[in-house]
Amino acid sequence: MSRMAELEETWTEQSFYDNPLAVWLGEGGTNPLPLDIFTAASIGCCQRVKDIITEDKNACNQKNIGGWTALMYAAYYGHCDTVKLLLGHGASLHLRNHQGCSALMLAAVCGSEAAVEMLIKVGSILETRDCREWTALFHAVHAGQRGSVHTLLRHRANANACERESGMTPLMHAARLGDAGTVEVLLRAGASTTLTNHQGHTAARVAQDAGFSAIAATITQWAAQGPNGPSLLDGPAALEAKLGHSMTPKSRAAAAPSVDNASVQPTDLETLLDQVGLSSYLPVFHEQDVDLQVFLTLTDQDLKECGIQKLGPRRKMTSAIARWHSNAPLRSTVECAYADKLEVEMQELGVKLTHALKALEQAKSMVSQESDLRSVTEGWVVEARKRLHQCYQHARLLSEQVAAVRHCVSLLSAQVGLVQPPLGQPSLIATAMDTLAAQADSLLALTDPNIPRGPKNTSPTKKQQGHVSNYLS
Question: Which residues lie within the region annotated Disordered (predicted)?
């Protein structure tokens, strides 16, 4: 008891954090293990952080093995005093960990509005994206931190930012998670209800697919009525009462949006031509028995064959056909003209792509044929080399045999005393043997595989051909 009382009297925060690790493991030890700057920042020990920075001024921007800095830990756990201390000693706002998250993103995930406010005021970039292409607003929405979402939006964070991979917006994420409060905050901050993701789904459709019909209805109602629409935070009874009071039959009729005639898909050819201002060409199509169904299949060449020679009307008709198939309105506006131009360019690129693919297939076929021919030729070359080597072996054997015969003939001539030829004329046997030896040497040189053979030495001479034919015969 006396020891415990002594500890209580001498206890201080600094001595608490300076205790060695062995103390917490219940082991004895004499070498203390003080906290590092990352641990001190994560538990908000300002004095320990200050001591470390005093010893090493660069410690506030050092990263641990996960890429985290002391500022990231302090922001993540919402220790505003430690955040202020680190910022005052030059801690960088723009460093990011291995996941690409900055201190502002981590503070948004934690939900510390004071830390988020402090980091924004000292210059944090709101639209910085991490490895998942998320901004701080995405992190706050995903973590359900409504206060962080409100603080970020109040400082003009982009409520309509999109993920590049999926096209999802913060509103779509909140709708998919069923977070009615965050959906309300985003809608009041100006989040668009008409944006679509890469699947073509709006935020209302995302909420409907996730099973949150009430949120989907609120988003749809907000798109029609704006800030005066119902709020999910009011509860089901208040929502029904507000809808019933604000949407009487008379008010529904007054609030119904006007329908543009150009956005209505025509049901006959006359209506379609009238919408694009080409009703004067209707008799031409009547003469050719072309109705709406046939008209929607016509190409520019088909329109020429129908008798429409002017380029302007033909281009308007092909554009109207393209808009019909893409469910686009038949308006004659600058935006539609630009869209039509892009459509024509896409068609031209499609034709070029088709030709390029055909050329590629032909090139592949030619390469395949050349490869097959090369394989056959290489087989022939290997076989020819094999035969040439065999011929060389036979030629060497023949040359050795001729040399042996010449030696035997000379010995026999000396022993039996053959009649000598007239003076100045060679012996018939010697002449025959010399000729045979010369032919054997020519054949040996012709079939020698060590002699290089190229374009300048591809065929034997006439003399060599004669020697070979004599040898073969």
Answer: 448-473
